[in-house]
Amino acid sequence: MTINIAVAGTGAFGNKHLDGLASIEGAEVVAVVDPVESSARKVAEARGIPHVTTDLDDVLCCGDVDAVILATPTPMHARQAIACLEAGKHVEVEIPLCDNLADGRAVAEAQQASGLVAMCGHTRRFNPSHQWVRRRITAGEFAIQHMDVQTFFFRRTNINALGEPRSWTDHLLWHHAAHTVDLFGYQTGSPIAVAQAVGGPIHLELDIAMDLSIQLKTEAGQLLTLTLSFNNDGPLGTFFRYIGDTGTYIARYDDLVDGNETPIDVSDVDVSMNGIELQDREFIAAITDGRQPNSSVDDVLGCYEVLDQIEQQLEAQ
After folding, report:
1. What pLDDT is recorded for position 161?
2. What b/e string do you get for 94-105 counting C-beta neighbours within 10 Å, with b at 16 or more?
3. What is the pLDDT of residue 204?
4. What's the rounded Cα separation, in Å, for the pair 154 and 236?
5. For residue 200, what are the domain limits?
6. What is the DSSP string of 269-314?
7. What is the pLDDT of residue 41?
8. CB of 220 within 8 A of CB of 184?
9. Alpha-carbon distance 43 to 52, whole Å?
């Protein structure tokens, strides 16, 4: 069974999805969408993709498109995801699902009405390093007591992951915190009972807090301490420390070490070390199997409920 896919957005993450899809049997990219036609055409020609358009609606009315992957600007995610579902297309939307809770709930309602596959790209669930830890948890060999996570960037101007000017503003809370808040709930398996945060000064041009400190506590008592900054001049990325009852593990992208920095081999955890490819494999498998995927829209909605609670606290400060 072949799933014909349109990829919307030919920036850094659109190309990551195209790389991943190229390794997946049964996935065929038949169209690329980007508002800059020259960018879409360049990607399509390099990859042998037959259809190029600047308008998502063009692929939504195509009968030979089964599914859409949205790697578009955050403010478009919810509206475009709903449009895909209403057009009868399965959809995978890059993280974050939304930048406000009402929009996230609207996507979940559209999925339920359509019965189609709707997935959000919460990649940390699929990274082999975090999968390795989860296997220990589900086997009863490790229980999280505290996760200490740092998300650090140096982004004092409005640029994207490629260092190019961005037409919209990225967000520490609704995008970058979403990765960790979701992962914490996923790995602990316990509802969030306490959520609190403080934010740094608001940037005069970007109109967002450039630094955040977030604390969560589950009903079972596990803690999350999450530090985020766009002001960090040093190593960039997100670094996860799992402190548990039988050990400590530190995940840095796809590398995993124990608390004493002894490397742990995660190369045989899954069929690939590429987290984007693995989440795309889950998307394709869910469509083929007629089921909802890991990190379905409904599954991740609780993360955005926590983010909404934190945003209300920050606005009151």
Report:
1. 63
2. bbbbbbebebbb
3. 84
4. 7
5. 127-269
6. SSS-S-HHHHHHHHHHHHHHHTSPPTTBHHHHHHHHHHHHHHHHHH
7. 97
8. no
9. 9
Cα separation, 19 vs 277, whole angstroms: 8
- Specify the CATH number for the domain of residue 139: 3.30.360.10
Q: How many domains does the chain have?
A: 2
pLDDT (0 to 100) of residue 34:
96
Q: What is the model's pLDDT at position 160?
A: 66
Say if residue 48 is exposed, middle or buried (CB neighbours under 10 Å; 0-12, 13-18, 19+). exposed
pLDDT score, position 165: 74
Is residue 194, in this structure, part of any structural domain at all?
A: yes
Among 7, 51, 56, 57, residue whose Cα is nearest residue 27: 7
| One domain, residues 10 and 69 | yes
Structure tokens at 115: 């019965």
Structure tokens at 265: 């081999």
CATH code assigned at 57: 3.40.50.720
Which tokens go with 193? 């009972």
Residue 149 lies in a domain: yes
Contact call for residues 258 and 264 (beta carbons, < 8 A): yes
User: pLDDT at position 75, please?
Assistant: 95
Whether residue 96 lies inside any domain: the answer is yes
Judge if 78 and 184 occupy the same domain. Answer: no
The pLDDT value recorded for residue 167 is: 73
Average pLDDT across each block of 10 residues of the chain; the chain has 317 residues. List them in order. Answer: 96 95 97 96 96 97 96 97 98 97 98 98 98 98 98 81 72 95 98 97 87 98 97 92 98 94 97 97 98 97 98 93
Which pLDDT score, from 0 to 100, does residue 257 have?
98
Residue 286 and residue 282: Cα distance in Å, rounded? 6
The confidence score (pLDDT) of residue 234 equals: 86
d(CA 172, CA 189): 24
Radius of gyration of the chain (CA): 19
> What order of strands is seen across the sheet that includes strand 90-94?
51-53, 27-33, 3-8, 67-70, 90-94, 118-121
